[in-house]
Design a protein that fits this description.
Helices cover about 30% and strands about 35% of the residues. The chain contains eight helices and ten strands. About 35% of the residues are buried. The chain has an eight-stranded antiparallel barrel with strand order 2-4-3-10-7-9-8-5. The chain has a two-stranded antiparallel ribbon with strand order 1-6. The longest helix has 15 residues, at about 25-40.
Length: about 240
């Protein structure tokens, strides 16, 4: 069963962590994130997903929560068998620190999206290829950037071959917008990524609203509904 990200739901909010692994084996970090995801899904997190860069060394963990849920309270409920991966660690940041550096951590609300099937939600499954774009702006320009990004999405989505869904997020701190695209397979995703004309049009369209932008193509390595790891199966 895939993770589902609703486009319009004021009762749900999404936490996204961008992590840069500092361990020899990235799978050690992924395994810990899977353990945490499975437990969080039992104590307030409605959906979660883990993305791994296909060419870089970035890992992203995302969780969809009911608005008002406290991730720190959820961490207090993490069982000892999960904490035993890294003994004596009591907080998410400290729990991850031996394996990764947290590059960015923010809460986001979805504010628009498109799907080929017409459903008001994106579905993410293990093995999917996704593209993610982060745009940073000044807080007073987030509303304008969000609107411009929506208009841009409406103009290119149906014309883009192989793009099955696209979700737009805006950060609670007011200075970021994120776009998450889910693709049918890697071929159209790479064709879109390496289309310099397409990217120059995006930058031109958002001119005056961007302070910085980051982009990556990633693979979904975990999504809600995947089999839990042995660590949790043996609880």
């Amino acid at each position: 069963m895939p993770a589902v990200i609703p486009f319009f739901n004021s009762s749900k909010t999404t936490c996204i962590y961008a992590l840069k692994p500092c361990c020899p084996n990235v799978e050690d970090l992924v395994d810990l994130l899977v353990c945490l995801s499975c437990w969080f899904e039992n104590c307030g997190c409605l959906q979660s997903f883990i993305l791994k860069s296909m060419h870089g060394n970035m890992v992203i963990w995302g969780g969809v929560w009911t608005t008002g849920c406290d991730i720190e309270k959820a961490l207090d409920l993490v069982p000892s068998k999960v904490k035993s991966c890294l003994p004596s660690v009591e907080a998410f940041r400290k729990m991850l620190s031996p394996l990764a550096k947290i590059m960015m951590a923010n809460w986001y609300d979805t504010y628009c999206g498109e799907t080929r099937c017409g459903l008001p939600a994106a579905k993410i499954s293990r093995g999917d290829v996704v593209t993610i774009r982060l745009i940073m702006t000044e807080p007073e320009k987030q509303a304008s950037l969000s609107y411009a990004f929506l208009a841009m999405l409406k103009s290119f989505f149906l014309k883009t071959k192989g793009l099955s869904s696209y979700t737009c997020f805006k950060s609670h701190d007011g200075d970021k917008v994120v776009g998450l695209g889910v693709w049918d397979d890697s071929e159209p995703a790479y064709a879109w990524v390496f289309n310099s004309d397409h990217h120059s049009k995006i930058i031109a369209y958002l001119q005056g609203l961007i302070l910085d932008t980051k982009y990556d193509i990633m693979e979904v390595v975990y999504a809600t509904g995947d089999d839990p790891p042995l660590l949790l199966q043996t609880r």
